[in-house]
Amino acid sequence: MEQQNAAAVQELPRTRGEPTRTVFDGPCRLTVTGDCGASRDELAQALTAVASHDWMRLTNWPGSYWVSAHAPDGTRFIGGDLAGTRPVYYTRHEHGDPTWAVHLGDLVELTGAAADLELLVARLACGAQHWPHRTLYRGISLVPGGYGLVIARGEATVVDISGIRPAADLPAAAAAFGHVLTEAVQRPVRNAGVEVGADLSGGLDSATAVLLAAAVGPVRAVTYTDGHTSGEDASYAVRIAEHAGIPHEIAAGRDEHLPFRLDGVPDTDEPAADVVNWHMDRLYLAPVAGSPLHLTGHGGDVVLDASSAAWVGMIQQGEERAAKRHVASWARLRGLAPRPYWMELRQTAALGRAGVLLRAADALESAAPLTADGSSGWTWCRPGAAASWLTPYARVRAAAMLREAAGGEQPESADEAEQWAALRATGEAARTARALHAPIGVRPVYPFLDNQVVRAAFAVPASVRRGVVTYKPLLAAALPSLPDWLTSRRTKGSFASQRIAGLERHRFALAQLIEDSPLVAAGLIDPAAARRTLLEAARGQSAAPIAELHQLIAACQWLTGRARSGPAGAREAAC
Questions:
Q1: d(CA 123, CA 140)
Q2: pLDDT in tens, 133-176
Q3: How far from each other are the two terminal CA atoms of the chain, in whole angstroms?
C-alpha cells in the first residue's frame, strides 16, 4: 500500500513543496521525502530490501530525498544523499534511544547544545574533512555523506551506503555517466511541465545543465555580471543561450551587489558559504523567483574533475612511472617546474594521511609563525593563513584534534579521500544555501550531486577525470552531442577580482564583525592577525587567503545570527 503525505507518519519533515510518500506491509515501512524518482511500484518492491536490511538499495533512485525505513525486526534506517545535501543528524540523551533529525536546529532546540567554537577554529585552520562526523554543536553528530544511520536495540551506528564500484570498461563508464547525468537534469524538468530557471555562468557545468534541460522543456537562464567578472564567461553564456534557443536574463551588478555585504542576510543553522553573495544572488535570480525549480551546475567540479590527489593516489598504488609522466606534462603546460612539484607529491604519498596530519599538528604547536608555504601540490592538511589567526591556546586545541583525527578511520588513498572531502564540502555548501534561497523564492536542484551521478563519476578513476591537456575530459567522453566549442574550452573565469573588490568595499564592517565575534571573546582568534590579513587581501596584496577569509566571515556571520535569533529562525527560513 502507498500513503501520500500521510498524517500518521511524522518521521520525516514536510518541507514546503516537497512530497512525502510512504509504503508499508504490516510492520515493514518505507518513507521518502523530497524529489524521489521512484515509482509507486518501485517503492513497494523496495519493502523486500527493508526487510533484508539492504539499505543501499533505498538510495539508488534518482533525485534528492531522505529515506526512513522500519524493518520487521524493529531496526530503523535513516539516510540522505551521498553528498549530504539531505543531511541526517543524531544525538543521544543520557537515558533513552538515539534521537535523529534532518534539520540541525531541531536537535539544537531539543538538547540545548552549545556551539563548539574550538572545532570551528580547527576547521578554519585545518579543513573540515578531518572530522566528517562532527557538527558545530557539542553532542550532535552528522551522518557523513556516503553513510546512513541504523538504529537497533537502542544503539546508533553508521553504515556505508556509497556503493562505488570501479569501472572495468572506461568508454562504457563514460557513457553510463552521460546517461545518468542526462536523466538527473531532464527528469525534474519534464516533471515540472512549465518553465524552470537555470544558472548560466558560462562555465562547462552550468552550460551542460542548461543544454540538457532545454532539450526537454522550457528553461529561462540567468547570468550575473559586473565590472569584475570574466568577460569570456559572459560571452560563453550568451552563446550557450543562443545555441539552446532559450530566454536569457543578464543582471548587471553594481557596487552594492559585490560580495561580503552582510546586512539583511537570512540566518542559517550552520555557517553558509553563499551568505557573502546573497545580495548578488537576490539580484540575478529575481527573474526566476517562484519557478518550480532552479537548475545549477553546483557539484560539477567534483564529479567531472579531480585534484592532484589523483597522482598521489597513483604513487600510493605503485603507479609511480605513470604518475610522473602525468605530473610532468601537467606542470610544463602551466609553466611550473616539474621536479619540485613532483617531489612534493611524492613526499605527501610517503608520509600518508596520518604522517601529514601529525606534521601539521607539530607545526600548530610550534611557536613559529604560520604562513602559507607556497606549495601547489595536494596534501591531506596544510595549515595556512587561517592558522596564523589562532591564539596559542587555539593552536594547541586544533593540534590535539588533528592528532586524534590521525588515528581515526578514514580513507588512506589520497584520491579517494579527496573526492569524498570535496563532495561533502560541496554538499554542505548546497544544504546551507537553502535557507538563503528560500526568502528569494528559489528552489535549487543539483543534478551533478544526484546519487547515481556521483556513483557513475567516482567509478571512473580520479586519474582519468584529472585532465592534463584537456579540461574535464569526462564531459566530452560522456556527452559527445555537446558542442565541441564548449567541451574543448580550457579556460575558466576567476572571481578573485570581484572578491577583492568586495573585501575592499566592506573591509571596515568585516573587521568589526570579526572583532565582535565570540571567537575573539573566547580567546580563539587574534583579531589583529585576522584584520591584517583582511586588509592585505582588500588591497590586492595577496589573493591566497581570500578563501579562508571567506570561511571566517561566514562563520562570524553565523555566530552573530545565532546569537540574534537562535537556530529555530534559520530552520523556519529553510522550510
A1: 16
A2: 999 999 999 999 999 999 999 899 999 999 999 998 999 999 99
A3: 28
Hey, what's the cell of 18?
516537497
Minimal CA–CA distance to 462: which of 343, 308, 359?
A: 308
- The arithmetic mean of pLDDT across residues 385-413, rounded, is 95
Residues near 363 by Cβ (< 8 Å), separated by ≥ 6? Answer: 370, 383, 387
Beta-sheet pairing, 2-4 with 20-25: antiparallel
> Can you tell me whether residue 98 is helix, strand or coil?
strand
Angle between helices 546-574 and 527-538 (to 10 degrees): 100
Say how far apart CA 90 and CA 242 lie, in whole Å.
48
CA–CA distance, 302 with 371 (Å, rounded to integer): 27
What are the two backbone dihedrals, phi and then psi, of residue 238, each rounded to the nearest 5 degrees?
-60, -45
Q: How many CB atoms lie within 10 A of CB 36?
A: 21
CA of residue 274 relative to chain centroid, distance: 11
- The domain 170-305+417-491 is classified under which CATH number: 3.90.228.20, 3.40.50.620, 3.40.30.10, 1.10.8.100? 3.40.50.620
- Angle between helix 231-244 and helix 204-214 axes, rounded to 10 deg: 10
